[in-house]
């Protein structure tokens, strides 16, 4: 199997790493390139940040645009998806009584950003409850659409949910929302590198995606895609020189978003490297990376469900990407003293068995599940180790 692929990552050999989903993991060759870029920057900071960085950013953006099916002019680099969500919400103006729709599967940080934006303007957050387990993508669409009213202004939705690892029926949701005159802000933190993207075709108003998760770029590489008709007047979270720049050779959107104060641009500049390195690890390139991670995730789900005695998958195969959710048997024994906010089983899996995998209460405690990731470096032995550890801990 693909154990040799693990050699491309500097992951701790003593850990069974089944949580690519939280923070990704960057291959050594990409980090090497980042170190070279940093050395170049520090050798002459003014030359690099003052003169060389702009064409380098343009080149990185062009590479990223081709990968996510976008026009490079519509992409702004972001340090992370959280910043992307906050940027959009800080730019929007709502009226008292306006409704901002999201789902009960929304990522907590993004939901917080929505709550804060609404509270400041007297708008109301409406949360659509999704069925769980999920019988079909249509059931998700129906649950969301049922909450749309004439006052709905925006839908905030994860492309791939964090807690439940669901690949949402995004195209259908965006289309149906637009039919009702509602724009969509997609939190695509897990999208790039997990599922094929065609952002221009999708037509969502805003899509923010991380490159430091499934695309395997260094930490701090993300983007915000803003549909052309919505770019005018859009401000970054941090206003800098672009606001009154006399330049006319590039759009205000680009001038404003490309410079938000001194920072390390090397994560962005490494996006094309990550695309080349990871896409080069298998003969079929990125389509194969995504398809094989998905196959691995589905195989892991079948295997773990069998070992845990669960006969029904929590969502259809069509809603699975490179992560799967597996329900833990109810009443599974846990250590009595809960450490911090982590589930005791989560902690014991790591402390006693060196298995890194998140355990989350869902839909609410005491029901819990595991979210298991599949990346090129994972092998069947990793999932067997998880199965053995669970058997020992849940016995
Ligand atoms: C759905 C979703 N949105 C946003 C984020 C936040 O990503 P970041 O910390 O890179 O902003 C995550 C992280 O796991 C996520 O799963």
TrEMBL record:
What would be an example GO MF term here? transaminase activity
* Keyword tags: Aminotransferase, Pyridoxal phosphate, Transferase
Is Transferase among this UniProt entry's keywords?
yes
Query: Is Signal one of the keywords?
Result: no
Domain Aminotransferase class V stretches: 27-240
Give one Pfam family: Aminotran_5
Protein's name in the database: Aminotransferase class V-fold PLP-dependent enzyme
């Amino acid at each position: 199997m693909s154990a040799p692929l693990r050699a491309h990552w500097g992951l701790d050999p003593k850990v069974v790493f089944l949580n690519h989903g939280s923070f990704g993991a960057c291959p050594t060759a990409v980090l090497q390139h980042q170190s070279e870029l940093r050395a170049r920057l520090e050798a002459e900071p003014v030359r690099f940040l003052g003169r060389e960085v702009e064409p380098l950013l343009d080149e990185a953006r062009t590479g990223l645009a081709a990968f996510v099916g976008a026009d490079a002019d519509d992409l702004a680099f972001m340090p992370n998806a959280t910043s992307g969500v906050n940027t959009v919400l800080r730019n929007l103006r709502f009226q008292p009584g306006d409704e901002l729709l999201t789902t009960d599967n929304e990522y907590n940080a993004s939901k917080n950003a929505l709550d804060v934006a609404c509270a400041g303007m007297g708008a109301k957050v409406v949360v659509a409850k999704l069925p769980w387990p999920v019988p079909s993508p249509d059931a998700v669409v129906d649950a969301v659409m049922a909450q749309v009213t004439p006052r709905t202004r925006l839908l905030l939705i994860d492309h791939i949910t964090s807690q439940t690892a669901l690949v949402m029926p995004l195209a259908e949701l965006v289309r149906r929302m637009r039919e009702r005159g509602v724009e969509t802000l997609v939190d695509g933190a897990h999208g790039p590198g997990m599922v094929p993207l065609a952002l221009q075709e999708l037509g969502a108003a805003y899509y923010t995606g991380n490159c430091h998760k499934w695309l395997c770029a260094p930490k701090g590489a993300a983007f915000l895609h803003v549909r052309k008709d919505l770019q005018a007047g859009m401000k970054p979270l941090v206003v800098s020189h672009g606001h009154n720049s006399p330049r006319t050779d590039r759009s205000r959107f680009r001038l404003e978003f490309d410079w938000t104060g001194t920072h390390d641009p090397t994560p962005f500049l490494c996006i094309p490297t990550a695309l080349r390195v990871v896409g080069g690890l298998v003969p079929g390139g990125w389509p194969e990376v995504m398809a094989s991670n998905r196959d691995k995730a589905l195989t892991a789900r079948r295997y773990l469900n069998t070992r845990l005695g669960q006969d029904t998958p929590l969502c259809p195969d069509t809603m699975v990407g490179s992560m799967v959710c597996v329900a833990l048997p109810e009443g599974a024994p846990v250590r009595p003293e809960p450490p911090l906010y982590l589930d005791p089983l989560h902690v014991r899996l790591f402390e006693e068995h060196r298995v890194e995998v998140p355990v989350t209460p869902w839909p609410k405690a005491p029901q819990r599940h595991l979210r298991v990731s599949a990346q090129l470096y994972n092998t069947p032995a990793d999932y067997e180790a998880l199965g053995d550890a669970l058997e020992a801990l849940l016995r």
